[in-house]
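step: validate -> pass
step: tokenize input -> pass
step: predict -> running
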Amino acid sequence: MAYIGKTPVLGNFVKLDAISVVNGQAAYTMQNGGVNFTSYDNVNQFLVSLNGILQSPTDSFTVSGSTLTFASNLSTGDVIDFVMVLGNTLDVGTPSDNTVSLAKLTATGTKDATTFLRGDNTFAEAGGGLVQVKYAQTQTAQTIGSASLTDLTSLSLSITPTSSSNKILIQAVVSGLIQASDRGFSLAIVKDSTVVLEDTEKKAFYVNISSGTPEINVRMPFTFLDSPSTTSATTYKIQAKTENGSNVVFNNGIVSSITIMEVSV
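step: predict -> pass
step: emit ->
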């Protein structure tokens, strides 16, 4: 409702801690719960009773900071009955449960089902979460005998990132049967048409066996974290190439797979 004249001061009414009179002293420290009290607007908010008589603000006492000063020194036998502060403008007390809505908060950012309120009073999406996962596998044998990178059939996935700042984690396991007369193979991860991971130094994603070694079936796991910096559909696939004219049979009855995960940061 509207008011005629000055709007009343609203807030919590506080009864301050008891104050013991010291003979010959006029100034006393005001406390609330043992803590110095300064949460007021002006001296007219105070009700001070001395020896059973209400004192007149400004005339009989003044306040400054946490100090209450009487107009004259008090004497032994004087009693400060109480000090009440009415309409404490800086302390509204403790709100009842379920009485403060989000609209009353000063937090910035967008508040919805995907965000949370951080310690710096801003709404933000949770970081480091798993947003989406794609998976593909195959057991269909595929022979590759080329020194050029060749797509491994069925080990290709497309993903559309929800944010350009998110990462894509690629995990793959590829099996390859190397015949006794062959030498080995190497793998690569391709994003759309660009190679993003290839072991050109033949130290990690590369298998080579000595001539005359019996055939060997190799399962090679590897992981790569990519930063696509886009919200457009992006395709990741596994490619392979063989060494020294080898013919390697991939997925020879053993599952090969690729998993791609969007991770928010």
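step: describe -> The mean pLDDT is 85.
step: cleanup -> pass
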